[in-house]
Amino acid sequence: MSSTIEARLSELGVSLPEAAAPAANYVPYVITGNQLFVSGQLPMEAGKIKVSGKLGADLGVDEGKAAARLCAINLLAQAKAATGDLEKVTRLIKIVGFVNSTGDFADQPQVIDGASDFLVEAMGDKGRHARSAVSAASLPFGVAVEIEAIFEISE
């Protein structure tokens, strides 16, 4: 694979969407020093929610992984909007993944792997990250997954 994130995305057949506008009273990202904090991103495509429902009831792990991958694509879209150039992203520090799931569902890590795997594919070693994968009783708009991220950036 090529070394740039944009080239890797192209090879993966992924076009970044326009970064989503906030759905409430917050900003989509904050830059402080050399860190970029991206607010939680939802599994949206073409401006519409693509995966809603509860893991362990309505959805299986594969559907959850697909939702997490969409969240990761949207994280990169926000990173590009924040920096103007994905090559200014020097590494992904951490993601926090929230999985809308039943009380007995225990595969949150496998669901969030959909984002982790994609981010490493797209970013190479810069995409290796720390993370948390937690259950949530409910998420905004009934989505299956929401993921936030912290990136390190250069000027």
Can you give keywords for this protein?
7 strands; single chain; 155 residues; globular; five-stranded mixed sheet; 60s Ribosomal Protein L30, Chain: A; 3 helices
Topology:
Layout: H1 5-11, E1 29-32, E2 35-41, E3 44-45, E4 48-49, H2 61-83, E5 89-100, H3 108-123, E6 130-136, E7 145-153
Parallel strand pairs: 5-6
Antiparallel strand pairs: 1-2, 2-7, 3-4, 5-7
Helix pairs in contact: 2-3
Which architecture does the CATH hierarchy give at level 2?
2-Layer Sandwich
Overall 3D form: globular
Largest sheet: 5 strands, mixed
CATH class: Alpha Beta
Structural class based on helices, strands and sheet pairing: alpha+beta
Q: Report the β-strand fraction as a percent range.
A: 25-35%
Number of beta-strand segments: 7
**Fraction in helix:** 25-40%
Q: How many discrete domains?
A: 1
Sheet with the most strands: spatial strand order = 1-2-7-5-6
CATH topology: 60s Ribosomal Protein L30, Chain: A
Secondary structure tally, helices? 3
Radius of gyration: 15 Å
Q: Give me the strand/helix succession.
A: HEEEEHEHEE
| Weakly predicted, low-confidence segments | none
Mean pLDDT: 96
